[in-house]
Amino acid sequence: MIMSTKEKNQEEVDVLEQEVFQHEIILHNDDVNTFDHVIESLIDVCDHTLVQAEQCATLVHYKGKCTVKSGEYKDLEPRCSKLLQLGLSAELV
């Protein structure tokens, strides 16, 4: 099958978009931080709504971890650092 230039370009864009959004901030459960602190931190640092932050905090509590933000490394790295500064257990993958 021969692809048109438009199809080939769209395929290249699709691949680039997959490569750009391959990073995630994972928040891990700990025995130190309160629900309120985690929720406030997610709202402040990750631009979550109250509902999103509450859902993530609940998932972290019961499942042990949760992806709290996905995107480009250059956007996520300072956010992850800020979560760590706030005493949360987070990693960038």
Structural summary, described in words:
- The protein has 93 residues and is α+β, with helices and mostly antiparallel strands.
- The chain has one domain: Ribosomal protein L7/L12, C-terminal domain/Adaptor protein ClpS (Ribosomal Protein L30, Chain: A).
- It contains 4 helices and 3 strands, in the order αβααβαβ.
- The chain has helices spanning 5-20, 35-46, 50-63, 73-85, and strands at 23-28, 65-71, 89-92.
- The protein has a 3-stranded antiparallel sheet with strand order 2-1-3.
- α2 (35-46) packs across α3 and α2 runs antiparallel to α4 (73-85).
- It is elongated and about 60 Å long.
- The N and C termini lie far apart (37 Å).
Radius of gyration: 17 Å
Can you tell me the overall shape?
elongated
Give me the secondary-structure category.
Answer: alpha+beta
User: What's the rounded overall pLDDT mean?
Assistant: 89
Order of helices and strands: HEHHEHE
Q: Compute the number of strand runs.
A: 3
Level-1 CATH class name: Alpha Beta
Largest sheet, if any? 3 strands, antiparallel
Number of helices: 4
Q: Widest sheet: strand order?
A: 2-1-3
Bin the strand percentage: 15-25%
Q: Total domains, how many? A: 1
Roughly how many Å apart are the termini? 37 Å
- Helix percentage range: 55-70%
What is the topological layout?
Blueprint: H1 5-20, E1 23-28, H2 35-46, H3 50-63, E2 65-71, H4 73-85, E3 89-92
Antiparallel strand pairs: 1-2, 1-3
Helix pairs in contact: 2-3, 2-4
Quick structural summary:
The chain is an alpha+beta fold and 93 residues long.
